[in-house]
Design goal:
Layout (H helix, E strand, L loop, with lengths): L3 H9 L6 E5 L4 H4 L2 H4 L4 E6 L1 H10 L8 E4 L3 H13 L5 E4 L4 H8 L13 E8 L4 E6 L9 H17 L6 E5 L10 H14 L7 E6 L1 H5 L1 H7 L11 E3 L3 H13 L5 E6 L5 E2 L7 H16 L1
Parallel strand pairs: 1-2, 1-4, 2-3, 4-11, 6-9, 7-8, 7-9
Antiparallel strand pairs: 5-6, 5-10
């Protein structure tokens, strides 16, 4: 899929809708999306049943049309949702409570992981209006200062998402502040190692190039000016950022100043996790569910 709308259209065509556990389902703005979400998934609302029913009524819908699991508080709702995911009764988890820190603490506890070696990372999916193409930016949330070992795992996570949304041979730009290796800058060395690993087939059918600065990643003119030869320039599927700080600023800049649609979710856990803090508007939330639905369909 090249655009958000294409991803939504394809997710709507999935016959066996994956179950989306919304926990705790106390956010009225998110509940207002239920008619659209029902085209993509089978929503399961977990939380205080009375509160959920009241808010659904306020939105002009009938609670009997939705599956609701009653839990007394936000913590128990999150625990219940994770149990359903571990039992394979829910495929996607979406945050819709009021206490973000509680959600993060409970969902990402080690006991909910498939194994202690599994790394969690966040993929942002952004749509570039000029090219009408989506690209992944990672990791922008979970790993503040990843070393080479963590970047390898983050890249594997991102590649799985890229392939799930139709990129058979993903093109990756391993970003750094410079487009050449500088021994004083570890991010340039990491990018060069990842590029060499890709040449030897360690990431499967994928093209990884780095280090590349953003200029060389997006502009063939910049590559010509700087003497850089790159097969991914101007056609990047995954931007692998050096750290969370640079990645978060990159995404926010594109979203706020570039007015580009952005969505995303956490991967590496037993199910994709859509964080409340990472959808900025209703279309972004719907697109995030669509991409996650395509991810779990594999």
């Amino acid at each position: 899929m090249k655009t958000f709308s294409q991803a939504i259209k394809k997710a709507c065509l999935i016959s066996a809708k994956p179950t989306l556990a919304i926990a705790p389902a106390h956010d009225g703005r998110l509940l207002s999306l239920l008619p659209d979400l029902c085209r993509l998934v089978s929503p399961l609302l977990i939380g205080r049943a009375e509160t959920i029913q009241d808010r659904i009524f306020e939105l002009g819908m009938n609670p009997v049309d939705f599956k609701i699991i009653d839990e007394k508080d936000e913590e128990s709702a999150i625990v219940r949702a994770m149990r359903l995911i571990k039992e394979d009764r829910a495929k996607i988890l979406m945050e819709a409570g009021m206490d973000h820190d509680l959600f993060m603490h409970e969902v990402f506890r080690t006991r909910h992981r498939r194994s202690v070696s599994t790394i969690l990372s966040h993929v942002n999916i952004i749509e570039f209006p000029l090219t009408r193409k989506c690209a992944i930016i990672t990791d922008t949330t979970m790993n503040p200062a990843p070393g080479l070992k963590e970047k390898i795992a983050v890249l594997h996570n991102a590649l799985s998402v890229a392939r799930a949304i139709g990129r058979a041979r993903p093109k990756v730009a391993a970003l750094a502040a410079l487009e050449y290796v500088n021994p004083s800058m570890p991010s340039t060395i990491d990018a060069a190692v990842l590029s060499k690993m890709a040449q030897r087939g360690q990431f499967g059918d994928a093209k990884v190039e780095g280090p590349l600065d953003i200029d060389c990643a997006v502009s063939k003119d910049a590559c010509t000016r700087k003497g850089v030869k790159s097969e991914v320039t101007g056609d990047v599927d995954i931007f692998l950022v050096p750290d969370v700080e640079s990645g978060s600023c990159f995404v926010q800049f594109l979203s706020v100043f570039g007015n580009m649609p952005v969505t995303g979710f956490v991967v590496g856990s037993p199910a994709p996790v859509i964080l409340k803090s990472h959808y900025t508007n209703n279309p972004s939330a719907i697109a995030g569910v669509a991409f996650a639905g395509l991810m779990v369909r594999r």
